[in-house]
Amino acid sequence: MNFQIKIAFLAFSLLFFMSGCSEKHYFEPEDIKGRIQYDGELPAEIVEVGYSGATLKNGQVITQKGLRNYHLPKDYRFINSYNDLVVAASDCKPNIVFNKKTNEVIKLNLKRRIVAAMFIPDTTKLAFVLEGNSYGIYDFKEQKIVSKYQSDKAISADIRIANPMMLADLILVPTLDGKLVIMGKKEGKRVREIIVGKGEDFNNIIFLKVIGNRLVAATPHRIISVSPKIMDAQNIEISDVLFVEDGIYILSKDGTIYLCDESLKILAEKKLPFAHFVGAIYGEFIYVVEKEGYIIALDLNLASANIFEIPDEIENWFYSTKDTFYYEKYFFKLHQQ
Fold first, then answer.
1. Are 129 and 173 in contact (CB under 8 A)?
2. CA-CA distance, 47 to 319, in Å (whole number)?
C-alpha cells in the first residue's frame, strides 16, 4: 500500500475510533449455531490486498482463481494479470510487467506507482491509473505513453481500487476521485465521463461490473447502475458489493444487507445491528464475514440468517474469492455438495 493511502487509512481509522469511543458498540449475537475452523494454512502471510488479488510475504499471489504458483520479485505487489503477464508495483522500485512463465521483468517508464491497471487484450498495452490520479494507456513493448490525462486531486483512497475494464472496444477507467472515464481502445482518447462518487474522501470506485445490459459501479458512498437510456443510483455507505445470480447485494456500513435488482431497486434487506462487514463468499447461501469474528449465513432472499463463530476477529489483511476467504496465513473454503 502506498504511503499516502496508508496515512489516509490510519488517520480515518483513528478519527473513527476517537469520535466513537464513548459509544462504541460491537456485534454481539445471542444465537450462535456453531463454530467454524479454518481449512488450512497459506505458505506465507498476506502483506497487501488489492481489488483483483492479495500478495503474500513470499511473493505468491491469491486471485479470484485462488493461490497461484508463481512468485513476484521481492518487494512487489500484485495489481492485475492477463494470461502469462502480471502488472506489479512497489513503493520504492519501478512498476513492472512480469512474465510468470519465463520470469522476465519489463520495467515501465512511469514515474509514479501504479495503483490500478489492465492489460488490453491482443496488444502490448496497459490501461493504468497512477498515484496522483493520472491515467492513460502505456505500451510496454515500445516503452512509451500512448495517452495520459490528469484527473482531480484525490487526497485519500480506499485500498480496493477498481482496475480498468473492457466494454466492447472501449476502455473503462475508474479514477481515484470517483469518475468513470470511457476511452477509445486504439489511441486512448477520452470519449465520456460518468460521475459515480460525490466528492467525499475515500471516493474511488471499489466495484465495477457489467451486469446484463447495465454497467454497475460503486464508491464507498454511492452505487450507480447505467443502461443505454437511464442511470439509477443509491446513496449508501458501502462496505462491499456482491453479485450473485440475478441479485446485487450491498453490504452497508450500518450493518444492513440490501438485495437489489439490476436497476438498484431494493427488493429485500436484513439489518444486523452494529455488524461491521469485511467481505463475503457464496454458494447455496451467502456467507458474510463480520469483523468481530463471525460468519453470517443468509439465504439468497435475506429471509433468514444463521450465525457461526470463526477463530479470529478480523484485524489485519482479509481477501475473499467466490467460495474462499483468506485471513493472515489461513483460509476457509466452502465445501459444496
1. yes
2. 11
pLDDT of residue 336: 63
User: pLDDT tens, 216-275?
Assistant: 999 999 999 999 899 999 999 999 999 998 899 999 999 999 999 999 999 999 999 999
Whether 21 has a pLDDT exceeding 70, the answer reads no
Among the listed residues 322, 287, 293, the one whose alpha carbon sits nearest the alpha carbon of residue 306: 287
CA 172 from chain center: how many Å? 16
Instruction: Please tell me the distance from the alpha carbon of residue 225 to that of residue 165, in angstroms, as a whole number.
Output: 16
pTM: 0.89
Look-up: residue for cell 459444496? 336
88/252 Cα distance (integer angstroms): 31
List of long-range contacts for 43-46, beta carbons under 8 Å, 24+ apart = 43/67, 44/329, 45/317, 45/328, 45/329, 46/316, 46/317, 46/318, 46/319, 46/326, 46/327, 46/328, 46/329
Residues near 70 by beta carbon (within 8 Å), at least 6 away in sequence: 60, 61, 86, 100
